[in-house]
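Forwarding these from the shared drive since the link keeps breaking.
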Amino acid sequence: MNILAIDIGGTTIKSDVYCNDKSLGQFNEMPTQVDLNTQTNNILNQVEQLISHTIEELSLQNKQLSGVAIATAGVVDSSQGTVVYAGYTIPNYGGTDFSSMIQEQFDLPCVVLNDVNSATYAEYKLNDYNKEDTLLCLTIGTGIGSGIVIHNNLLIGHTFSAGEVGYMPIEGQKYQNIASTTALVKNYQSVLNSKEPVNGKMIFEAYHHNNSKAVHVVREWIQQLVKGLLPMVYILNPTTIALGGGVMAQHEVLIPLIKDELRHQLESEAFMPKSIKPMNVGNEAGRLGAYYYFLDHVSSK
């Protein structure tokens, strides 16, 4: 089966065709067409054109497209293939119905998943997890999102918003406002009392040189990150916590600090997950997760 997997973000749309778990070399990347001034987007048309182009390219190789698998930002009703809610980065995105368009225009089956859920599914499928495991994935970037697999099933939720932990209140603030990479950068800039641009790379370069301000900010940020992890650990009792996002390039520093802080904040060592590790799926996570979800939930029917 040749499956077109598409990863839709607020900045770019990336796609590739997969068959037998391998890319067919059809990778494509384009800017996401959004206009914050007019509060509009052109994503549905972009996806339609992308599918048409892929069908044409495959036909030149005497191949056919078998289905479409989409990972996208926003809250997604996977049962209907529609976006239920999206933040300000993709205006007027709620209500976008990928499934109907793909069925009507191309008569192809499709799946649509939230992007973090898709990355979580890729992490689960591509690594050595047991069916009895509970996997909690946390992605840390501009915001914070999570995905959960329990006993071989991706947890979607009653209104399709399971894992939207970035909105969780922690000491009167949204979790993502105190524990995202954005929060880390903002805190370091405040400590420096500087208006000069700061990024994560600069912070960890200073940290590795034992800069007292960087060490202080990183350790405070770890405390905030773990405050949000704490209720997830108590509720889910996960076998593994896998952490993703660009900041996890520093996993050799961060994972030991997170483990130590979690042990400190937990009531007992008995509540500790078996493993805390960086996610191990790379830049294809969204596309691969959607691809595997298609294979498991559409092609297997």
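-- next protein --
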Amino acid sequence: MSGEKLVKDLSYEAHFQIYKLLLPPALGRDWKTLADKMGYSQETILYYECLNNPVKELISDYESKGKPISELLTFLEEMERFDLKTDLEKYVEETPTPEEREEKIRLELEMKQGQAAEKPKTMSDRYDVFIAYAQPDRPFADELVKKLEAPPYNLKVCIDYRDFLCGNDPMETAAEAIEKYCRKVLLILSENFNRCEKADFQANVALSLSADVRHTNLIPIVYKPCKIPTTLQFITHLDYTKKEARQHFWNLLTMSLGCSNGCANNREI
């Protein structure tokens, strides 16, 4: 029977045709006659007759035994149900063989595994830096991610919209990332940041770390002119607001992150 197409692999439309055309009573040509040809006892046929959809229950049991479509078509021909036989033959061509179905499942599984491998990192990963920002300043945050993750720096950056898993509390996830999995924290300061509850929370988490840790791990970046929060005024910041300062910005930033050109892959986390 290897290579034969099976009844269970027929499409939903094909099954619907079977249910619809065999249900109406027709002496010698309805589902009861088909059940008899399939080898079901009269007692079993009487049982199916008591069910809401006897044809569906019959076909479901029949196909669970791995029966081939060719056998079903033979029974229909013997019953002179050429109408249903002709209808089903239209669906047979598009029905896969067991081998084809298994191959399709295998390919789909490989594709899903490949997609899973490409998914963003989870919080079990270690990161070089976490970026805290207000939503209006996301373009600059994206620029930082792109620059820092590219050669020659090759840093591992954690940013909420990409690296936080769905379904988790974003505040708790941010706190966990800052406290346990990120060596450094960048704060993109602006008036937007000062008004952002999420960014303020993330900054406070970083500030709650021990004094010796936060002085070396917290890097405020003044992205747009703003009032620097009192809690951050004692920490040296990088200025991105002045054009003359920008020529040194990336060099100072990567040095603050503990990475000079070409050394990213040799650092310890």
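Residues 12 and 69 are 14 Å apart (CA to CA). The chain has two domains: 7-98, 127-257.

- D.
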